[in-house]
Amino acid sequence: MTKPITVWLTPPGPNSWKVILVLEELQVPYEIKAFKHDDVKKTPYTDINPNGRVPAIVDPNTNLTLWESGAIIQYLEEVYDTEKKLTYDNLNERHQLNQFLHFQMSGQGPYYGQAGWFTHLHHEDLPSARTRYHNEVHRFLGVLNGILEGKQWLVGDKCTFADLSFLPWNCRLDILLKYPDDVDPLAEFPNVQSWHHRMRERPSWKRAMEIRDGLMSDQGLQPNGMPKGIYNMAQYEDFLAKSPEDQQKWLDAQS
């Protein structure tokens, strides 16, 4: 009988949910060790991942500890996707899937992350940096839109782990780029938009988001990642401008 895989994660970040999504799709037993982002560079987590990034897994079935979301996904596919639900047997298709997984990790993740950082978190306003990464996000989406022209999925005729790896970051795009609530940031990329919506309707994604929202609530966060009691981006930016001590006082006052 398969023992549950332990997944270490901080709920707000997108990368961990790539792994949870694959676990849900494959129906592999797992348990989550959730902790606050403030503790990602501290023990005991750095004993699991010395790089201090999430996610990481500990698999008691193979005695393997593994970090980096792409490496974890490839491992789960090799060991647990025995029915090839999210992959293929064919040599060419297998490597095309890995190509797109690397494209997600080298293109989408870093560009989206830097766009979010310079839009919301950097200690000074740097319009040139913000413009650069916003432009790179749109360039990346344009490439992806072209790849998906006339296709339902990236490779072959089914949704695979490569497709699913893009979903968590695209779900955060409106916040990362500070889009108004009534504007879909994928609207100008119709192939990406329809592909994205198909994946969001999968039961595995809905289940993963139910789990995520519960873990976020436990940490005093709303589903959009903002602390409870903050209702718009202007309030969130005011919160981020506070010192860590004042942020904690504000959070304590909301509880």
From TrEMBL:
The residues covered by the GST N-terminal domain are 3-84
Q: What class of enzyme is it?
A: transferase
Q: What is its EC number?
A: 2.5.1.18
Q: Which residues form the GST C-terminal domain?
A: 90-227
Q: Which reaction does it catalyse?
A: RX + glutathione = an S-substituted glutathione + a halide anion + H(+)
Tell me which stretches of the chain form a coiled coil.
none
Keyword Transferase belongs to the record: yes
Keywords tagged on the record: Transferase
Superkingdom of the source?
Answer: Eukaryota
Q: Which CDD domains match?
A: GST_C_Ure2p (cd10293), GST_N_Ure2p_like (cd03048)
Q: Name one GO molecular function term.
A: glutathione transferase activity
Q: Which family is this sequence assigned to?
A: Belongs to the GST superfamily.
UniProt protein name: glutathione transferase
